[in-house]
């Protein structure tokens, strides 16, 4: 008897491909997010940018600081969540200072993160689970190397040139405490990211408990 493929349902006369949920590939984003007041100020900046430079994407891209981006099978999700919780419990909350604007020529304008070292140190801790985040040879996790908060990206050349001329002269200072990481997910069914986990930075050192041999 021929071996039946696990993804093929042959109960019907027609052969219908059925992919179990756990084998679906999702895109994940791990971020830090400003407190509500600062978040709203950034929304105002982005809406103003969208109107001034005819850039609708700036209005819809929510303010956040990316730590890492990766793709992985949904069946790996709970294991990843558990490892992120473990890492977060050992981290101190830290202050993020923002000062002025920067750019990635010729496509992105962002709010500049002045205190980068604490973010970079957190990213280094996250790299210890990079093998868990790797889908395949062509889909490796991307860890942020230049911390920033995007105002607008994927700009057309004229948008970038005009906007950067204006924004490199603008003043903006603010700060917030990074006290939790947030994990977002999206897939083909949901184009917008959905929050699936929040991981407070608690600085709780792991304590290994030795199991008793006798009861």
Question: Can you give a write-up of this model?
Answer:
Strand 10 (180-186) and strand 11 form a beta hairpin. The radius of gyration is 21 Å and the shape is globular. Helices cover 27% and strands 30% of the residues. The strands form three sheets. It has a five-stranded antiparallel β-sheet, covered by helices on one side. Residues 1-17 and 206-215 have low confidence and may be disordered. The chain has one domain (25-200): Cyclic Phosphodiesterase, Chain: A. The chain is built from six helices and eleven strands. It has 215 residues and is of the alpha+beta class.
CATH fold topology: Cyclic Phosphodiesterase, Chain: A
**Major sheet details:** 5 strands, antiparallel
Query: How would you sum up the global shape?
Result: globular
- Report the uncertain regions: 1-17, 206-215
How far the N terminus sits from the C terminus, by CA atoms, comes to 52 Å
Number of strands: 11
Strand order of the largest sheet: 7-4-3-10-11
**CATH classification class:** Alpha Beta
Class based on secondary structure composition and strand pairing: alpha+beta
Q: Work out the strand percent.
A: 25-35%
The helix-strand sequence is EEEHHEHEEHHEEHEEE
């Amino acid at each position: 008897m021929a071996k039946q493929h696990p993804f093929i349902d042959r109960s019907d006369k027609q052969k219908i491909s059925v992919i179990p949920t756990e084998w679906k590939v999702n895109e994940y984003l791990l971020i830090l997010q400003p407190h509500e007041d600062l978040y709203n100020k950034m929304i105002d900046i982005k809406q103003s940018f969208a109107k001034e430079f005819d850039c609708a994407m700036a209005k819809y891209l929510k303010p956040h600081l990316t730590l890492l981006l990766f793709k992985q099978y949904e069946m790996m999700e709970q294991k990843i969540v558990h490892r992120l919780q473990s890492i977060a419990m050992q981290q101190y909350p830290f202050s993020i200072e923002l000062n002025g604007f920067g750019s990635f020529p010729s496509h992105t304008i962002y709010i500049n993160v002045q205190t980068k070292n604490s973010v970079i140190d957190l990213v280094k801790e996250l790299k210890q689970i990079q093998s868990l985040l790797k889908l395949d040879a062509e889909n490796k996790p991307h860890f942020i190397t230049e911390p920033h908060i995007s105002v607008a990206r994927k700009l057309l050349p004229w948008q970038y040139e005009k906007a950067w001329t204006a924004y490199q002269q603008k003043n903006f200072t603010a700060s917030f405490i990074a006290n939790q990481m947030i994990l977002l997910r999206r897939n083909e069914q949901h184009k917008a990211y959905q929050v699936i986990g929040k991981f407070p930075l608690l600085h709780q050192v792991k304590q290994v408990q030795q199991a008793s041999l006798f009861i």
